[in-house]
Amino acid sequence: xxxxxxxxxxxxxxxxxxQRYHYDFRNYAQASIRRRLRQALGQLGFANFSxxxxxxxxxxxxxxxxLGYLTVQVxxxxxxxxxxxxxxxxxxxxxxxYPSLKVWIAGCSTGEEVYSLAILFREEGLEDxxxxxxxxxxxxxxEAASRGIYALDRIAGFTRNHQEAGGKSSLSxxxxxxxxxxxxxxxxxxxxxxxxxxxxxxxxFGEMHLISCRNxxxxxxxxxxxxxxxxxxxxxVRNGFLGLGSKENLRFSPHAGAFGDFVRAEKIYQRRxx
Length: 274
Description:
Elements: H1 3-21, H2 30-44, H3 49-58, H4 62-70, H5 81-95, E1 101-106, H6 112-123, E2 130-136, H7 139-147, E3 149-151, H8 155-164, E4 175-178, E5 181-184, E6 192-196, E7 208-213, H9 222-235, E8 236-244, E9 259-263, E10 268-271
Parallel strand pairs: 1-2, 1-7, 2-6, 7-8
Antiparallel strand pairs: 3-5, 4-5, 8-10, 9-10
């Protein structure tokens, strides 16, 4: 198969995914999409993308399997501890001035960042006044996030990150172990709303004091990155905070002027006072 034919097949497949199921990957970075679709092609047993396209149109059971390849579900608790330490030491003192708070974890994957922030806010005495919104486009990821169950062999790394992020307690205070897994305390998700939301097609759904969207926009093309940043801008209260991933920034966005650097090294920005 030539690259030109493959390009056509991929465009048609992504268009079918959008038209049939309303998942829009058409403006994701093409090199990343191509790589993930090629992986799906072999592991799902299709001879080519046209065959996958045909099955997708007529068999809804293929959708969640394909989304598992197209949505990147790689995370860990307190990933990049310096980011969470900066939230704790620089952002939290500002958040403490509000009587109530709304926090949006956009692209929450399987929930590791949700529980990280819930624990951080509990340790800083902010949990009781905070409503967390955890969103993703993958129903399977949201289901996993809402369960809060992680393989026990991941906990040592989670614990190390928590300590490096300035944790004020032992991570073991927040989970129980059973059958080779760590089950995080259900009280950590009592103030969390897990919901489907697409940065590609959906709109603002509330005013937020902190938005954390890390390592999601690296998979978007420039136009889609600009759309997401505009959505965050419109979602933040005056002087609210936006946290991005270590390889992401606002530098080339037309919305950059709406933000100021707050902790530059950790990609934490503050919405300017209009």
